[in-house]
Design brief:
mainly alpha; two-stranded antiparallel ribbon; 2 strands; 70% helix
Length: 405
């Protein structure tokens, strides 16, 4: 699958460069535009999941073990972790956000029945994988509820409650804005609290934080190393990002509020990377200095991780139900809630049984990328060539979102 992933990566980065050259100054306006800060909050919280909170502390040691993984030797573990989660990788979301905002309304590739079916399979499967990640990481972050390793009934109940909350919040779009802003501020608060605990103690200093965050230069100095997969684990991450890319682009494209194309790219690459850089730097300091995170810190991380999951699932449930014409207004709230809760719960268990793999989902997405390009070249070349603005029906009216259910 490495060759397929490599082809997808090369296609993605070439497409980004082409878009900047051809449509770099086009104003991007979605169907329900919002102010830039809200757009970034929606992008950040919808485009990330619980792994951002829960993975790094379990991964730094692996990146530092050069005897087992010599391919990481070109830089430090903090730079590796950042490279797996930030900056260049957000170009995936830019590509799909621009496509669904500016090109798809003219091409309508994702309205082809078979493509619509595959797209919704991708969205639903990735929703379940997000819930599965939360389930598998809770024992480590909430050992008080078990032995720190075994999945007990309490963890299943927590994940089930998260699925229920997500499905309920997806019944009205106003919850997206509320959840996104609340999750963003909660994450910033978590960074501040854990930063203070690490760097304002008797044996620490702000200067040590500056030195720690300076290690991120190892990422930017070796940016080319992150373009293609370093090993199987990096390959897993990249397939994971591909799995998310179409649905996050499809969802966030609705909310772009008039930024020009190059500004959308800059916003997507830089702004989410800043809190990620701060967060990973704090966690790395905890890791290398063996600072204890048990108790309050682990609980706080688990709570913020859960809000990320609710926010992400809310966005994605709304997306696939809209695509399938199965909104709460059409089905009725009771049928909507029961159907989605049962479906996501069962799919989460399928990931638990290793019946599904997120790499398969990512591979399908790469296939959709190439199929879409072929469709444009064969059927819609003149239409796409003539594009010089967002669809005329989209205007920068920031009150439209208040009129949508």
């Amino acid at each position: 699958m490495t060759a397929w992933l490599t082809a997808g990566l090369i296609f993605t980065f070439v497409a980004i460069v082409f878009i900047l050259i051809r449509w770099g100054n086009v104003k991007c306006i979605g169907v329900t535009p919002v102010h830039t800060f809200t757009f970034i909050a929606i992008l950040f919280t919808s485009g990330l999941d619980v792994g951002l909170i829960m993975f790094p502390l379990t991964e730094f040691a692996g990146y530092a073990d050069l005897a087992a993984s010599p391919e990481y030797g070109f830089t430090n573990p903090l730079a590796i972790e950042f490279g797996f989660w930030a900056f260049l990788i957000w170009g995936f979301y830019f590509l799909t956000c621009f496509y669904f905002c500016v090109i798809e309304p003219r091409v309508k590739f994702f309205e082809i029945p078979l493509i619509k079916f595959i797209n919704n399979f991708v969205i639903i499967g990735t929703c379940a994988f997000t819930a599965y990640l939360l389930l598998t990481n809770l024992p480590w972050y909430m050992p008080e509820l078990g032995d720190g390793e075994t999945l007990v009934s309490s963890f299943y109940l927590i994940v089930f409650a998260v699925i229920c909350a997500s499905v309920y919040s997806s019944t009205h779009i106003r919850y997206v804005r509320i959840l996104s802003l609340a999750t963003t501020w909660a994450f910033i608060g978590l960074i501040v609290v854990m930063w203070a605990g690490a760097f304002l103690g008797e044996d620490s200093s702000v200067g040590e934080f500056v030195s720690t965050i300076g290690l991120l230069g190892g990422y930017f100095g070796n940016l080319d190393k992150f373009v293609l997969p370093l090993n199987d684990y990096h390959e897993f991450y990249l397939y994971w990002w591909f799995a998310w890319s179409i649905m996050i682009g499809q969802f966030t494209s609705r909310f772009v509020g008039g930024l020009r194309t190059y500004q959308v790219l800059a916003a997507m690459l830089v702004i989410p990377s800043l809190p990620i850089a701060a967060w990973f730097s704090v966690l790395y300091y905890y890791s290398v200095n063996s600072l204890d995170t048990s108790g309050f810190y682990n609980l706080a991380m688990a709570i913020v991780g859960i809000t990320f999951v609710i926010n992400s699932l809310d966005s994605l449930v709304r997306l696939y139900t809209d695509n399938l014409g199965m909104s709460a207004a059409k089905l009725g709230t009771a049928k909507y809630l029961v159907g989605n809760i049962v479906a996501l719960s069962l799919l989460t268990l399928l990931f638990k049984l290793d019946f599904l793999q997120i790499q398969w989902v990512g591979a399908v997405v790469i296939g959709l990328f190439f199929t879409c390009l072929g469709y444009i070249l064969l059927k819609k070349y003149k239409v796409v060539k003539a594009i010089d603005c967002s669809p005329s029906a989209n205007v920068a009216d920031f009150h439209k979102i208040d009129l949508v259910n």
